Amino acid sequence: MQWQFSNDAPIYTQLIQQVKVGIVTGAFPPGERLPSVRDLATEAGVNPNTMQRALAELERDGLVYSQRTAGRFVTEDNTMINQAKRSLAERHVKTFLEAMLRLGFQRDEIITLITQELGEEEADHASA
Amino acid sequence: MQWQFSNDAPIYTQLIQQVKVGIVTGAFPPGERLPSVRDLATEAGVNPNTMQRALAELERDGLVYSQRTAGRFVTEDNTMINQAKRSLAERHVKTFLEAMLRLGFQRDEIITLITQELGEEEADHASA
DNA sequence: GCTGTTGTCTTATGTGATTAATACAATAGC
DNA sequence: GCTATTGTATTAATCACATAAGACAACAGC
Description:
Two copies of one chain form a homodimer.
Chain A: H1 11-24, E1 33-34, H2 37-44, H3 48-61, E2 64-67, E3 71-74, H4 78-102, H5 107-127
Antiparallel strand pairs in A: 1-3, 2-3
Chain A binds a DNA duplex through residues 10-12, 36-38, 46-50, 52-53, 55-56, 66-72.
């Protein structure tokens, strides 16, 4: 798990996002025990309280659950995880398109920019 | 000019973004005088100091300039404005694609999602 | 049963963002 | 020239975020 933060948003919200991404991408598989709050905090380089806050919020979403002293676990509900993934993707798509349309870009221009950038990334990977 | 803020980022950074968008979209045309700091602040529902901070930063970017007591004006440099627009777009595209690829979506899946969403928006507009 | 680890809670402190309330010099407009 | 408006600066107060340090009950594992 790679942890990195920007300074244009609260750390605890970024923690929520990154753990969530870790879950939907399988870095934290369904049913698997997460490292303890303290360990995760150390790993991410944040205060245990901050990590606790993020995990508590993920628990409210149902993506993880805690067993008093045994630790914290990723949900076994694959449907919920897929739902979370689809939800994340949809929000990204909507946010992106809203921003681009607001800037005045036409639909075909957006498609063009996307395919261009995808091509470049592919080229980058090939040359790397 | 529509002002709205989320609580997951400092207001002054959101102000910077929104004024910048206003400039590149022509809501604030090149060379035009902006409302005073106080008026803009009132309009946006924020403190004048916060608006001042945002405008000062836009001034460092060169998108606006201030004349002591006459007010603040949008740059007449269309090249700079177009450059800002392209820069904003590129950042949106990159951020979006990074997020989607990290979630594990394939290139063609991304294209599909985009075109789907664009189709729905078109339908929305048509029905409205 | 003991012990260490777990999630959880509490209190205190520091920092940055934001608001609030002014104040000032410069000057456009009359 | 006067005056109101302008950008700009200063100081203080408030709030959320983040850290720090420590405490507690519960219980898994021995």
